[in-house]
TrEMBL record:
PANTHER family: PHOSPHONATES-BINDING PERIPLASMIC PROTEIN
Annotated protein name in UniProt: PhnD/SsuA/transferrin family substrate-binding protein
UniProt-listed Pfam families: Phosphonate-bd
Organism: Pendulispora rubella
Domain of life of the native organism: Bacteria
Length: 263
């Protein structure tokens, strides 16, 4: 059974080349540590086809990991990104609205149209709902909640006035605005959520996560990954444990108060 590797959580555009370059060096360090069947290239495709027992190295959203993947996958470590909104090995969501919209407070969103990227998303749904619950919002708070399928589509829905508000992972937000600078004039940040552990690097449960962690550390200190790290703004990795992601269950429960139970 051949292994898989994937870095699909932040990918596409110039990130594709950066991820390929980063993986080539990680793979080299994994092989040097005696790990067999290291994939020569990243696998791209539906993440549900990759988050399984064949995964040697990948990345997942924190809530699906803790709610249903932790029996199959284990944490290697948590990345540290150098983007606004990141503090150490954390990220957060930016709640965004159209630049010309009248909304100034979260309470102003009552009865409006929200868009989320995925019902399981910690950044697109859970942190969004947690922030709203903190100001007393309760279901049914929105007139309509639609599912876009991606943070990129959610952001464009808001920019194009197809929806009133969305919550975007701050790392994704930074990459989107860097790639599409005209979006800066179309949207604005209404609110920044509280932090959550960043999207973890993971491996299947049968692998030696500590060995993979050491190989990734070596790769991130390897001068040959400097260009890729600069594009990704990936500055390190921290050894967070599974328990750190239990807080995403709290975010999810609070989001249920605003959006109603997840289907």
């Amino acid at each position: 059974m051949s292994h898989l590797a994937n870095l699909g959580m932040y990918d596409g555009g110039d990130l594709t080349r950066a991820n390929d370059e980063l993986w080539a060096i990680i793979a080299e360090h994994l092989r040097a540590r005696g790990i067999a069947d290291v994939p020569a290239a990243l696998t791209r495709g539906p993440l549900e086809d990759i988050w399984n027992e064949r995964l040697l190295f990948g990345q997942t959203c924190g809530y699906p990991f803790i709610s249903r993947l932790a029996g199959t996958l284990q944490i290697v470590g948590t990345p540290v990104y150098d983007w606004p909104g990141c503090e150490g090995a954390t990220h957060r969501s930016f709640i965004v609205v159209a630049a010309a919209s009248p909304f100034r407070r979260l309470e102003d969103l009552l009865g409006r149209h929200a868009v989320i990227n995925d019902p399981e998303s910690n950044s697109g749904r859970n942190l969004f709902g947690d922030a709203l619950a903190s100001v007393g919002a309760r279901a049914p708070f929105f007139h309509e909640v639609s599912v876009s399928g991606s943070h990129a589509r959610s952001l464009r829905d808001v920019a194009e006035h197809s929806a009133d508000v969305a919550a975007i992972d701050n790392v994704s937000y930074a990459h989107f605005l860097r790639a599409h600078p005209t979006l800066k004039d179309a949207i604005r940040i209404l609110h920044e959520t509280r932090p959550s552990p960043a999207l973890p690097f993971v491996t299947a449960s049968q692998h030696h996560a500590s060995t993979i962690f050491d190989a990734v550390c070596e790769a991130l200190n390897d001068a040959r990954t400097e260009g890729a790290r600069r594009v990704l703004r990936l500055v390190g990795i921290e050894p967070l444990e599974r328990q750190a992601y239990e807080i995403t269950r709290e975010f999810s429960a609070r989001a249920d108060e605003v959006f109603g139970p997840r289907p």
